[in-house]
Specification:
about 120 residues, mainly alpha, about 0% strand
Length: about 120
């Protein structure tokens, strides 16, 4: 998968997260989790784009690690929405799967870059 495809997928995730957060019920818990998810879910694509513009291999690796952290954090907030019975699991399955898929790609990229640096 090339960079442009990952950029497209991460932007799509960000837009899906935005729409999800906008649709959450208005409650103190949903508001807090929603803000956290909005931050991390939109950061995946922004940080991936930054990684694509990295000034060095070390900078690229560090930015990819941020993408990994934001994707994993987004999965956590989605799990909380489900386990707190704010959103049904079936409603979040596709989004969760897509973020997990992106996370796997990023982790594989990190491992490959580390292996090539040794």
């Amino acid at each position: 998968m090339d960079r442009e495809e990952i950029k497209r997928r991460t932007k799509s995730v960000a837009l899906r997260v935005i729409r999800l957060v906008q649709s959450l019920p208005h409650s103190p818990v949903a508001d807090v989790i929603g803000r956290q998810l909005l931050r991390s879910g939109t950061s995946i694509g922004a940080n991936y784009r930054a990684a694509c513009r990295a000034k060095s291999k070390a900078d690229h690796l560090n930015k990819l690690k941020i993408v990994e952290e934001e994707a994993d954090e987004s999965l956590y907030w989605l799990e909380l929405l489900i386990e707190a019975d704010i959103v049904t699991a079936s409603r979040l399955t596709d989004l969760t799967n897509e973020i997990d898929s992106i996370l796997r790609i990023i982790v594989a990229s990190i491992k490959a870059q580390r292996a090539s640096n040794t």
